[in-house]
Amino acid sequence: MSQASNTSDSNHPAPAPTQEAATQAPERVEVSTQDAIELLGLLAFAELSAQMRLAVDAALSPTPEHRLTHAGLSANAHGRMVALTNLIAEYGVDGQSVVVRYNDAFADYESRTRSETWYERVLKGYVGHSVALDFCKLVAEALPDNLQERITAIIGKTNESENAAAILSAKSESDPTFASRLALWGRRLVGEALGQIQGLVISNPALERLVIAAAHNLGTEVGSPTVQEQQKLETAWVFSKLTADHARRMDRIGLAA
After folding, report:
1. Is the pTM value of this prediction over 0.90?
2. Which of 14, 58, 136, 169 has its CA 20 to 30 A from that of 49?
3. What is the pLDDT of residue 244?
4. What is the pLDDT of residues 191-200, one digit of tens each?
5. DSSP string spanning 179-227?
């Protein structure tokens, strides 16, 4: 019962809660420093993966202009990775030791999505890296506001998605047949990317706790009487958000999700 009902006597019953009080945002769930570090490690590894992929994209680029652009994007991803590992180090932890724990985080995605053309490689990075970042940004809602702001300052300024969108849009407009092929490829990519994220959440207790905390802090109820049902609810919440973001991303380049 509320404090008001505890202080009222039997002749003066407590007033009913107002609609504003009933819809008040839930109290934020605090996450541990170690769980926050785990998310930073995953983010740093995502940027390391992007750096290496973009370097290969640069080497395989069909034009000198694309080669220069992708080389620059690879260097930018390296800079973000370094900034994130430095942020981890501020907690008294060796950043590289956290990042290497995720060395195989995207291994299944990579092995199951072998690209046949350079444009398929670009779409693979556009989908895979974006889904990974979307997930990290989503569960970052579990972190303190000041840490969220610092993460956003690091990963919020990137031209990679815009560059990929421009390349893929131009290719789709010039070759409708290839556009249909890219759309099918995109559907396969997002399925594999979402499956990889699901595996990470299931296998990493820290990420699972962050998902639950983020869902709570965003006002999404994932509580359940059983662990199995709770896991289904939290996974469904995450995947619905990631899928919606992917659909909007594909719409930007004129491809059906």
Report:
1. no
2. 169
3. 82
4. 999 999 989 9
5. HHHHHHHHHHHHHHHHHHHHHHHHH-HHHHHHHHHHHHHTT-----SSH
